[in-house]
Amino acid sequence: MIFGIETVLILTVIVYLLGGAFVLFIYEAYEKTKQKNLLILSIGLFILIFGSNFDVLASVLLPDMTKDIARTIALIIEIPGILIMLYSALKS
């Protein structure tokens, strides 16, 4: 492995912080405009960001879970996030 677990965890936290900031910006835009597609987009993006790093989060919180199961769960979480974002884009 090129990077240690500490580096991976730091990068995961950065992804969650940047993604969370982006979700908040989209939600604030929803509050100003009351366009439902922005609310749906922010929900989909939240789910996608959470799922994108689920395998890293699982390795810390659930050390008994295998990497393959954690990655599969991450993908299962990501797919609805992408579909929700797609729905938001098609609805507008």
Descriptive report:
The longest helix has 29 residues, at 5-33. Helices cover 86% and strands 0% of the residues. It is mainly alpha-helical and 92 residues long. The protein is built from four helices and no strands. It has helices at residues 5-33, 36-52, 54-61, 67-91. The mean pLDDT is 92.
- Rounded to an integer, what's the Rg over CA atoms? 15 Å
Q: Quick one: biggest sheet?
A: none
How many angstroms separate the termini?
43 Å
The helix-strand sequence is: HHHH
Contiguous helical run count: 4
Fraction of helical residues: over 70%
Tell me the β content. Answer: under 5%
What are the low-pLDDT stretches, counting only 5+ consecutive residues below 50?
none
The pLDDT mean sits at 92
Specify the structural class.
Answer: mainly alpha
Identify the overall geometry: elongated
Number of strands: 0
Helices and strands in order:
Blueprint: H1 5-33, H2 36-52, H3 54-61, H4 67-91
Descriptive labels:
92 residues, mainly alpha, 4 helices, 86% helix, 0% strand
Q: Concise description?
A:
The protein is built from 4 helices and no strands. The protein is mainly α and 92 residues long.
